[in-house]
Design brief:
Protein name: Thioredoxin domain-containing protein
Pfam family, one: AhpC-TSA_2
Organism: Epicoccum nigrum (Soil fungus)
Radius of gyration: 33 Å
CATH architecture of one domain: 3-Layer(aba) Sandwich
Distance between the termini: 138 Å
CATH class of one domain: Alpha Beta
InterPro entries: PXL2A/B/C
Strand order of the largest sheet: 5-4-3-6-7
Length: 336
């Protein structure tokens, strides 16, 4: 009897209608509707086409919006339309400190040169693009661009994370500003594609494929956890020339080594139509040149010291020779 009383007290008659209404969300139709609102794993989970890093919150990563072309299919050098430029002008690019700015500020803003060449490279560990910038930097300087009748600037944009920009600048010796656009939306809206096709060897490539590959691997290993933040390995870029805010010339890469030749860039910008000067074949040519200078100085000092010792030996002097920093100057005194 006691048990019956507890049931009656737990469920009073006045509460019976309320319990009937609360049972509605637990019915099977509403339960299935709740499951449909859950996020789909295919949209949230990373796959092989999603860059392995967190992009900027302002510009989300593409979710398979760009068709994965192979080789040189559907690639042309048509100028982007006004609609295309309107889609990209407010997209953000990042500098080495992670600070953002709209893409349009590179080619249409106060304080910038009236003519801008924007070079889109591949991932930040790509040895082919690094070779391109080394050859470009050895042939074209910022000073020569500003001295043109129409002052010109060059800007480089990669598809990796901005924290890799200092490494990339050091590896290439690039004197031009470098930005990052890890979402690849700029690449997509401006008609650049993705491919692994190597293509034929261009003139700007002055090292072989094996050396480039080894350098890329070592660069990635040296960066540690940043090795997966270089960007999409299949993304290729191109070159876009803007004059007074309008795009007037385009070259899109069809292969991973498909940048416009440096001689073509020089002619386009009005520097000259000659073949660009050859740089050191090895990327560390400057360091080797410094080592050779140090070796030559050491050899000069050695010869000076040997020559001074022989002269003293002939004169019969016992006074030691004092050698200064200059290899051509020897101080000594002899006694009769």
């Amino acid at each position: 009897m006691a048990t019956i009383e507890t049931k009656d007290s737990a469920v009073p008659p006045a509460a019976a209608p309320a319990s009937h209404t609360t049972a509605v969300p637990l019915s099977p139709p509403h339960s299935s509707g709740h499951e449909e609102t859950l996020p789909k794993p295919s949209m949230d989970a990373y796959d092989i086409n999603t860059p392995p890093f967190s992009p900027a919150s302002d510009t989300p990563v593409l979710q398979k919006e760009q068709e994965d072309f192979e080789g040189t299919v559907h690639v042309n050098n048509d100028l982007p339309t006004e609609k295309d430029l309107s889609k990209v002008e407010d997209l953000l690019i990042l500098d080495a400190q992670g600070k953002s700015r709209p893409f349009k500020e590179l080619y249409d803003a106060s304080g910038v040169a009236p003519r801008q060449l924007i070079i889109f490279i591949r991932h930040f560990f790509c040895g082919n693009c690094q070779e391109y910038l080394r050859t470009l930097a050895s042939s074209i300087t910022p000073e020569s661009l500003l001295a043109l009748p129409t002052p010109t600037s060059i800007t480089v944009i990669g598809c990796g994370r901005p924290e890799l920009i200092p490494m990339y600048t050091e590896a290439t010796g690039c004197p031009f500003p470098i930005y990052a656009e890890p979402t690849r939306k700029l690449y997509d809206h401006l008609g650049m594609t993705r491919t692994f096709d190597l293509g034929s060897k261009p003139e700007y490539m002055q090292t072989n494929v094996l050396i480039n590959s080894v350098q890329s691997v070592f660069q990635g290993l040296k960066t540690g956890r940043k090795a997966l933040k270089g960007g999409d390995f299949k993304q290729v870029g191109g070159e876009f020339l803007f004059e007074h805010g309008e795009c007037t010339w385009v070259h899109r890469m069809k292969t991973t080594r498909g940048h416009a030749e440096v001689s073509e860039i020089r002619q386009l910008l009005g520097l000259d139509d000659k073949r660009p000067p050859m740089r050191k074949r090895w990327s560390h040519g400057i360091k080797m040149e410094k080592q050779q200078n140090r070796r030559s100085m050491s050899w000069g000092r050695l010869r000076s010291k040997s020559k001074g010792a022989k002269e003293l030996e002939k004169s019969g002097s016992t006074t030691p020779v004092e050698e200064e920093d200059s290899p051509n100057r020897i101080v000594g005194s002899g006694t009769a």
